[in-house]
Design brief:
This protein has about 375 residues and is α/β, with parallel strands linked by helices. It has 2 domains: about 120 residues, Aspartate Aminotransferase, domain 1; about 220 residues, Type I PLP-dependent aspartate aminotransferase-like (Major domain) (Aspartate Aminotransferase, domain 2, 3-Layer(aba) Sandwich), CATH 3.40.640.10. It has 13 helices and 13 strands. The chain starts with 6 loop residues before the first helix and ends with a helix. Bound molecules: pyridoxal-5'-phosphate. Pyridoxal-5'-phosphate binds next to helix 5.
Length: about 375
């Protein structure tokens, strides 16, 4: 008899307790509900310019290959990444988005007997990956919205296998300075894996921002993760990667699915890597628009957390759900971050200038009405 059978009772440790990741509603459904057609989405930190036109061409030319399995080793893409980053291709692990690689790291190193450390207000995938293997999440309180690296070192025990740090962090936009990162790397025991999540590193312009890649040689326990979802404009295709020692990459590659990155994603990523100008233009536009948003927020009396990425979290000084709904009703979709422990903030992705104009106008309307 299957009646009364509760699969949660036999689920692997941790799985039944997972709070599923809350994806946003599909834009078409939202528009249908609201009766509008021209909404703008500033909710997921994608590149508002989309991918380079060269990428679209590369995708079109690979379409006839769809019936074939992709290159399971990602040989060409890894070689191109290796050449660009001056690392060996054996140091790279490709993922179905960098989320995939983040999960591979936890699966490769942690079990239900271990702990994984990350910060309060950090990326939602870290607790998900941790719980999926039944490991214990150790959440370290943030300091001024940023990672408290000293406190993160203090909670490391013999059970700790992985520490996640994001630089810049999502959803706060805060970043770790060079001297802070160096102190942290020195303080973490060499048998603990440090994941430095650099999903937004291409956007950063701050002079004291450390490049994780400089620390791979002296710290063989360091894993960098990066993505084509943000500045490269390929979020829908799902492709990311890690850079680590060859020994760590070997372990990660053993447990990844053989065809985890599809052929369109590989071709698109390869073409995206070859268009540096496009990345540079995107970065400059983002920087200029972010500064403009700061200025306008200040005029409206709104405070915000200064960001090194392509998004900014704005503090409304009270639960932000009403503002979120009011923006939505005007067709402006942003991201509530109450589930990140930030109920008074909304995270806003920097759009192209026309989108930011619309956001600012909509915000003014909300603030006047409330
Ligand atoms: C967006 C983001 C990623 C990228 O995820 P993908 O799976 O590569 O799309 C990784 N880390 C953080 C902190 C992010 O915000």
């Amino acid at each position: 008899m299957s009646e009364g059978f509760d699969p949660g009772m036999i689920a692997a440790p941790g799985v039944a307790g997972i709070q599923p990741y809350q994806p946003g509603k599909p834009i078409q459904e939202l528009e249908a509900e609201l009766g509008i057609t021209n909404s703008i989405k500033l909710a997921s930190n994608e590149n508002p310019r989309g991918p380079s036109p060269k990428v679209i061409k590369a995708i079109e030319s690979i379409l006839p290959e769809i019936p074939r399995y992709p290159d399971g080793g990602g040989i060409v893409l890894k070689r191109a990444l290796g050449a660009k980053l001056a690392v060996e291709s054996e140091q790279i692990t490709l993922g179905n988005g960098s989320n995939d690689v983040l999960e591979l790291v936890v699966r490769a190193f942690a079990t239900e007997h271990n702990s994984v450390i990350f910060s309060e207000h950090a990326f939602a995938v870290y607790p998900l990956a941790t719980q999926a293997v039944g490991a214990r999440s150790v959440v370290v309180p943030a300091k001024d919205w940023a990672h408290d690296l000293e406190a993160m070192v203090e909670v490391i025990t013999a059970e700790t296998r992985v520490v996640f740090i994001a630089n810049p962090n999502n959803p706060t936009g805060t970043w770790i300075r060079k001297n802070e990162l160096e102190k942290f790397l020195q303080a973490v025991p060499s048998n603990v894996i440090i994941v430095l999540d650099e999903a937004y590193f291409e956007y950063v312009m701050e002079a004291d921002y450390p490049k994780g890649i400089d620390y791979l040689a002296p710290y063989p326990n360091l894993v960098l993760t990066r993505t084509f979802s943000k500045v490269y404009g390929l979020a829908g295709l799902r492709v990311g990667y890690s850079i680590s020692s060859e020994a760590i990459a070997d372990l990660l590659n053993r447990i990844r699915q053989p065809f985890n990155v599809n052929s369109l994603a590989q071709a698109a990523a390869l073409a995206a890597l070859q268009d540096d100008d496009y990345v540079e233009q995107s970065k400059k536009l983002n920087h200029a628009e972010l500064q403009r948003l700061y200025g306008e927020f200040e005029k409206m009396g709104l405070s915000y957390i200064e960001s090194a990425g392509n998004f900014v979290s704005v503090d409304f000084g009270r639960p932000a759900n009403e503002i979120y709904d009011a923006l939505l009703n005007q067709g402006v979709i942003v991201r509530p971050v109450a589930n990140y422990g930030m109920p008074n903030h909304l995270r806003i992705t920097v759009g192209i200038p026309e989108e930011n104009d619309r956001l600012l106008n909509a915000l003014r309307v909300c603030l006047e009405d409330s």
